[in-house]
Every structure is written in C-alpha cells, then in structure tokens.
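Any chance you could type out some protein's one-letter sequence along with its backbone structure tokens so I can compare the two?
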Amino acid sequence: MNKKIMEAVGFKKEIEKVEHGCCPFCNKKIDEEKDFRDSLSRKEFKISGLCQNCQDKIFGNKTRRNK
C-alpha cells in the first residue's frame, strides 16, 4: 500500500485503522497469523488491510471444494 497515494485520495482514516491492526472496512482487530485461510488472503491483507470476512464480501468466497 502506498501511504502517500492513499492519503492523497482521501483514505487517511482507513490508513490509520490498518496501522492500528484493524480492517479499514469493518474495524475488526486482525491477527495476521490466525485470521486468514491461505497465503493469498494474507497477501491481499498486506495490500489492502482487509480482514478475511471483508475480502470474502468483496471478492467472493473462493475456497476450494473437493468434488
């Protein structure tokens, strides 16, 4: 996440939430080691700061299912 760009477009409050370890959408406190189902979700968290639940709401729940 580029902090200067995000601040310039009006996301200062969201940046502060992420810096305090909270999801910028729902404000849930995030434990990076426990709260994500896979490495892709952790990678998205590092980009956006979104918790697993908010990622699922935005991108859809794409868990693998055995057939």
In short: The chain has four helices and no strands. The mean pLDDT is 89. Residues 3-59 form one domain. The chain has one domain: 3-59.
